[in-house]
Amino acid sequence: MTKAGLFRALHHGRTPEDPLVLPGPWDAASARVFVEAGFPALATPSAGVAAALGYEDGTTPADEMFAAVARIARAVDVPVSADVEGGYGLAPGELVDRLLEAGAVGCNLEDSVRGKLKDPREHADWLAEVRSAAADRLFVNARVDTFVRGVADPERAIERAALYVAAGADCVYPIGAPTAVLPLLRAGIQGPVNVFAKAGQGPSPAELGGLGATRITFGPGLQRRAAEALREIAARLVK
User: How many whole angstroms separate alpha carbon 7 and alpha carbon 80?
Assistant: First the structure.
């Protein structure tokens, strides 16, 4: 089985108490730490990679992001999915080629740009082109940004999710969804659902799985916790 096939299989047949937990490496060293801990796959966070490269979230040049993903993918044997934000304005075919060249087996793709939600049907058409170019070589995680863009009604997220699944998305990621609406989202969305979690805070992965999460990611949270730990160590060194 290819790495892409293995990654896709990890999302299916899971029980509610056993969601797929994907830590987010920001460089090769952190990726190796997560693999040594036993995680079967990884999912890079764009904000965490940006911080490691010295950029603000959303400002990393495409070439540097793909290069960072390539370094992470080369460093480990497990499947790596890449958060490539909104696709950097690349045509679907070029985006797919760049991801595959970097060694990624999946990608996160956002449905907002410069803080504003995209037209969902136009975005679904674009996702369909990405899926067509990728075939089964990439697992497409379609991020739904309604909650982080001030649209609290879960039905709007469900409507977008339906369009994206119909376009070929393998998973839907309603980022920022309140815990209370997860059962409603689970009931209304076909296929795997990605839920954002805060490491060490809030519901456990098993609890989120019981509420409807198929897979769990942490955004830049792990990178930020590591940076805070390093700050504490550095502060002690200068005393």
Answer: 8
